[in-house]
Design brief:
It is rod-shaped and about 95 Å long. The protein is an all-alpha fold. Helices cover about 95% and strands about 0% of the residues. The protein has 1 helix and no strands. The protein starts with a helix and ends with a helix.
Length: about 60
């Protein structure tokens, strides 16, 4: 009887480890997606800033003429 209890206890503990590892992997994948989305957002913002700077320069050039 004791060996059966030990087997069930070991199986239960092993299952907890798998769940924890799975949760960690999911969290890591989500964090990676957040980082990638943040990079895309930053690139878009930089592009818009560059376009705005270019438009301001064109307006200055036009005003000087």
């Amino acid at each position: 009887m004791k060996p059966i209890i030990a087997v069930f206890a070991a199986a239960a503990l092993a299952g907890c480890g798998v769940e924890t590892a799975s949760t960690a992997a999911t969290a890591a994948a989500l964090k990676k997606q957040e980082i990638e989305q943040g990079k895309k957002t930053m690139e878009q913002a930089q592009k818009k800033i560059g376009q705005s700077m270019e438009q301001m320069q064109q307006a200055r050039d036009a005003a000087e003429k």
